[in-house]
Amino acid sequence: MRSLLAIELFKISKRPRTFISFAAISAIVLIFQFAFKADGENYMNLMLQGVNDSFQLNKVNALNGYFMCYIILNTLLVQVPILVALVAGDAISGEANMGTLRLLLSKPVYRHEILWAKFLASIAYTLVLLVWMALFSLGLSVLIFGSGDMLVFRVAGEVSQIMQISSDDILWRYLAAFGYAAIALTVIVSLAIFFSLFAENSIGPIIITICIVLVFTIVSNMNIPIIDIHVKPYLFTSYLVGWKGFFYIATTPEGVPIKGSIEDLRSIKNSVLILLAHIGVLQTLTWYFFKRKDILS
Amino acid sequence: MIHIKSTVFIALLFLSSIPAQSQDINSVLQRVKEKLEKINKYEAVGTLKTSIAYLKIPVAKVTVLFRKPNELSITSKNGVTFIPKGVRAISLQNILSNEYTIIDGGKETVNNKTLRVVRLLPTSQENNIVLSTLYINETDYVVEKSSTTTKEEGTYEMKMEYGKYKKYGLPDKLVFTFNAKDYKIPKGLTLDFDNATSKNQKMDKNSMNKGKAEIQFDNYTIN
Q1: Considering the entire predicted model, what is its pTM?
Q2: Tens of pLDDT along A131-172?
Q3: How many C-beta atoms lie closer than 10 Å to residue B148's C-beta?
Q4: For the domain that residue B71 is a member of, what is the CATH number?
Q5: Is the interface score ipTM higher than 0.95?
Q6: Helix or strand (DSSP H, E) at B211
Q7: Residues in contact with B136: Cβ distance below 8 Å, sequence separation at least 6, in sequence order
Q8: A1 alpha-carbon distance from chain centroid
């Protein structure tokens, strides 16, 4: 199993498309950091526009690395599924395209071991991508912008809110958020590998996965009551942004944030369970069809 | 005849009581002013707790700096501190530095204390303050409560609790209530996408705009 995994990781590392994702993430993060370094104060003022009328704001490094990372993740974690699909969608269809699938499956190894190796290699790629993202969006941002208390702007239904998290209460939230993102992206990996099973080249499964993610994301963001109640709960994309829950801090009745707390832990747990269920179902289906896959033709 | 005499006596008594009452409230207010005027500058360290529905912010450690005649600044070392705008505009030093007409409001009981009520009407038309009502403790000559109506920002209320700095007229605790404007940001700007398991929130608009700020002063450095 280990050698199979090592082979799969080697294959991923040798594909040029693997590094497209790293380059894309680096470029997006650097552009964001440059833009905010040049004109971030205006963005902050825009967000605090309504508050300026009633309050005199005494801002000390409000535009810090933690805030930057949150802004970047808001944008990036919607795009990263596409980057993950680029590699995972190629896992089986790539072999079929090159004509190595028959050779691979005729080796004296179990099919489920091959499938697991491909699955774990794609997850490993996703984790490395997330670590890269954390280094760039959090590490580099803290180096450039410094650290401090973090402001979180939130719109929940009719209510707009501003939350402030103390600097010593932030890092664990990012750790948890990246952990959550790893689970969410594993759903995309599972989906892409599943479609990869039925294709003879990797373009098809990659495009199908990207289309599903895009369409579902658009529907997930529609604010129409009937969709809110009857559609959103059944779309996995509605749970991809659940990582933000770690930054919604619970408060005392007087509105003072409670250190180390989460406003709605139950919702996060539910989201994790639903995502894990998606992974389970997709993995089972992939295993079922992969076991019966005809490699004679 | 007796009737005329008694009427004249009552009228004289009434007339003589007006300047006496006015003088009295003037002297009470003067004593309060004298107390505050002893302070040329002070620096106070304390905590600021701002509560309003749309803000979830921690208690901030603040430094309050005052310099005569009415320069007041509140600063904090980290994060963003939300200081209600009215705090500066309606500080007692600021209210009492204006020219005003004094109206005696009699006495009122607030928190089991009988306080002298004085209403101040600024004489200048350009002043943002329309009316200030001060509730003065006549034993210590300190303002325990005040209510200030401004032209643009509505009515502010302040309650003061005094301790070891009572002789300077400086409170240990100040509670300030105010009206704030709505805070609304477009969803697209926050990139805030709803999680299907989290419930959308609704909020009573009245409670949304009512704010309260509490400053607890730990230490003053005066003059």
Answers
A1: 0.82
A2: 999 999 999 999 999 888 898 988 876 778 889 999 899 999
A3: 26
A4: 2.50.20
A5: no
A6: strand B210-222
A7: B28, B29, B32, B115, B116, B117, B118, B142, B143, B144
A8: 27
Strands (E) located in B59-170 = 60-67, 71-76, 79-84, 100-110, 113-122, 129-137, 142-150, 155-161
Measured in whole angstroms, the distance separating CA A174 from the mean position of its chain's CA atoms is: 13
Amino acid making up residue A188: I
Q: Which sign, positive or negative, has the C-alpha torsion A247, A252, A257, A258?
A: negative
Chain B interface disruption, residue of A46, A58, A246, most B CBs within 10 A: A58
The pairing of beta strand A159-165 with beta strand B55-56:
parallel
Contact B195 A245 (CB under 8 A): yes
Chain A residues within 8 A of B177 when measuring between CB atoms: none
Residues B121-125: contacts with CB under 8 Å, at least 24 apart: B122/B98, B123/B98, B123/B99, B124/B98, B124/B99
Which of A212, A14, A194 has the alpha carbon at shortest distance from A118? A194
The stretches of A48-134 forming alpha helices (DSSP H) are 49-52, 65-88, 93-98, 101-105, 111-134
Spatial contact of B176 and B72, defined as CB atoms under 8 Å apart:
no
What residue ranges do the domains of chain A occupy? 2-291
Q: Which of B46, B70, B4, B61 is nearest to B163 (CA)?
A: B46
**Mean pLDDT, chain A, whole residue set:** 88
From the list B149, B140, B145, the residue with the least C-alpha distance to B160 is B145
Chain-centroid distance of CA B84 in Å reads 12
Neighbours of A11 (CB within 10 A): 17
Domain membership of residue B116 as a residue range: 2-222
Distance set, CA A206 to CA A103, A162, A181, A191, A260 (Å) = 23, 38, 20, 10, 39
Alpha carbons B114 and B140: distance in angstroms, whole number: 12
Q: Cβ separation of A220 and B83 shorter than 8 Å?
A: no
Mean pLDDT of B41-64: 89
- Taking CA–CA distances from B154, the nearest residue in chain A reads A54
Query: In this complex, do B56 and A161 lie within 8 Å of one another by their Cβ atoms?
Result: yes
Structure tokens at A209: 């996965």
